[in-house]
Amino acid sequence: MNHVYSLNRKKHEPLVENEAMLDVASAEGVIDHGIGVGANFAELFIERSLTNTISTLSQQVQSVESGIDFGIGVRLVFGTKVLYGYTNKTESEELKRIINELAALDLRDPTASKIAFNFSKPDEAHPATLRLSGDAEVDSKVAYLLAADTAARATSNLISQTRGGCRQKEQHIEIFNSEGLHTQDVRNYIRATLTAIAADGQEQATGMWSDGGLLGWEMREQVDPKRTGDEAARQALVNLGAKACPSGRMPVVIGNGFGGVIFHEACGHLLETTSVAKKASVFHDKMGEMIANEAVSAVDDGTMNNEWGSINIDDEGMATQHTQLIKDGKLTSFLVDRLGAEQTGFERTGSGRRESYKYAPASRMRNTFIEPGTASFDDMIGSIDRGIYAAQMGGGSVQPGTGEFNFAVTEGYYVEKGKVQYPVKAATLISTGPAVLKEISMVGQDFSLACGMCGSISGAVPTSVGQATLKVDDILVGGQG
Amino acid sequence: MSLTDQAGQILEHVRAQGAEGDLIVDQGEALSLKAKEGALEEHKVTSSQVFGLRVIKNQRVGTAYSEASDPESLKALVDQALMNASYAAVEPFETILPNKFSLTTDDQILSPEDSASVADKIALALDIESSLAGKPHVKNVPYNGVQDMQGERRVFSTAGLTARSKARSVACYAYALIESGEQNAMEGLGQVARRFDQLDPTKLVDATYQNTLDMLEGSSIPSGKYDIVFDEEMLPSLFSVFALMFSGKSAKDGVNPLRDKLGEQIADEQLTLVDRPDHLEGFGYALFDGEGSPTAARPLIEQGVFSSMIHNSMTAAALGTVSTGHATRGPKSTLGVGLHQIEIVAGEHTAASLLAGEYFLITDLTGLHSGANPVSGEFSFGASGYLCRDGARVRPVRGVTVAGNFYELLKRIAGIGDTQYWNWEKPALLPTVRFYDLAVSG
Prior knowledge:
The structure holds two protein chains of two kinds. Chain A is an alpha+beta fold. Helices cover 18% and strands 40% of the residues of chain A. Helix content of chain B is 21%, strand content 40%. In chain B, a hairpin with a 2-residue loop joins strand 16 (378-389) and strand 17. Chain B is globular. At the A-B interface, strand 1, strand 2, strand 3, helix 2 and strand 5 of A face strand 2, strand 3, helix 2, helix 4 and strand 5 of B.
């Protein structure tokens, strides 16, 4: 079957460059109204997103889903108080009604003046050619997922089941604010995933591989379905034969790419002004101090071309940045959004992000990673008498107030007397941010990034984690052995 | 144009294309308040609407949704769903049920009138924050809030089903950060009710404060095998992580590890677990499921024997059984299955007999989303709680992990208590369950 798949271009779809999703006169009236009721700052965030998700199961297309997300978020700031509302309607009267309801208890004479809108559009640093609004490319995506499925099954008869998924999103945003900002951007996200299940008798184990980026389905030219299938199957088969993971405090070598989730959880969240301004981060008063081993330099970078966590502008309309968070162990910057800048006095870093119009923005990570070092893998493993090599990591979480975090090893190996011995079952690693940053003693050279979704106060946003393989001298391993 | 008229037009367009289908329309309004240092920090007011369409044509299923509700977007919704269906594999078991019912829930029960004003709710948010912040050693209350949410779901099908359910919930929560010298701790709790006056902020503040204060001196315990009691919040969380074991859809897809175990002993014979959508007090109370099928209490594990999975009409037909009234579907999701609210039947142990000797009471698990594999049953979580003896807390415990295999754990039940408790979000009514021989790393 040969399909031409195109999402219909109806009146709300801003597919013509510079075409407004909300007309300027309406936006001006609503912003004026916000300032008129006494807000220091008023903002409109308009979003229209197209999504398409393809799921495969056992060599068949299980489902194709598509949708249109559309809404307008209204933010008013009265001093340190944030008032936020949203609606799916575009009528300016509805937006003014929300403002009236939000500001009912804060009405006062105007304290700020609105500055006339000055439209500017960011340069496109993340070009996408095969965009969802052009063609969902369902046939091509299905072919890719089924080829990955075939590759996974070809590795072993023990691969009993596979699940594939490809999700594409085209997010159009437009922002107006009372400081004269009027801007637009389009973000194209693509992610393809294969999960393999291996079974041997009563025992089952899983493996997964995922690719993604801030681009269109031209990603197909950069990814290999055989590699995807092989890798998902390899992990499942390794885990199928894994022994119980030892438990207790020990050194751990953490693999590159998604291994960077350790920094994301141990430190990244604690540097967001969302936590810092509340003094709910253990690092809130540590600027300029050594908070990590001097082997550690870390960055949060929204500028990297077509990377999953990149953006042209943040969700407050500010150009994104390369932000050096830690240099040689010393804390050099927080991640600062507009409100965080007002509350902490630090300069904004273009880090105001939100999942959608349903959330007020908050300071969030983009592509966050520990910069590569000079150590070799053999030196790291060779320095361990008894420990773990965590080749692949899963997700994690952190409690910023105490810095206590956890993250999961999904492919691990027992290391003894300087050599990798045998695979071990999944285990969680736990520590605190301040403690573990000082235990990172060696950083390798094989740097890579991996994509994930980060959930926090302003919803789930695409973020990359990354690092070269590194060694943590002492961390608690939650095994069963 | 009324919502009913819009739905009628959409379904008429579906019929005109030679298909059948059903449409879900969710509408909601919410108020969210957060306080900081005695003043309101965030005040959020929202309203939303989303249309979700499922069509079936030539035994192929397609779905699409739209938050835009103009006529052109809604017509495009039908076209997209039909296009999506054309790519899907043939699924002979998924049908639009021939239900012509007109179903509605009781607003007086699920969405009662509430005279509390916005000012009342703001006052509560400020009171919770300031009351907690004013207690000794509390550095701040970084996360707190009051929420009032109202939602209405309408379902229409080409077969003639019309269903309407409306629900309201009000909630409050608070997390306290306590510091003393070099030590710190942060703990949080929440409450949920149908009406504002049913919230008990004093209880929330006092319990949050005491839990946080108690955890301040927490430290590790030696690695080893321990008897474990998960508190009334953590036990339902643990079962929720492994709910795939009950899923008929996962069985149909070949990933439910217990799909061939019906009728077999999978747990200690003390364990009887029932899904109870008929418990009016819980927030999982439901009269009908996502396909409009009636719900009923459904034993899933009886005296340790795996007695039933949960099904919608499609999974039931595929596996040669009947729907159990557990269909789930949202505007943005395909047909699935889901538990309503689980109950573990109370056991025979008094607290004194159940809690005799030493055990580790777990009051918090971290990494629930990442540290578990429902297919294999393996789990490894961060944990905190209390080392206890004879029902009394001996010392707080932090910075440890607990690891095992959930499907093995079900067979290691030392005893089940004679009193049941709701968790705070109220989808689970469970007694205290004591497990044995679980690995703790400290």
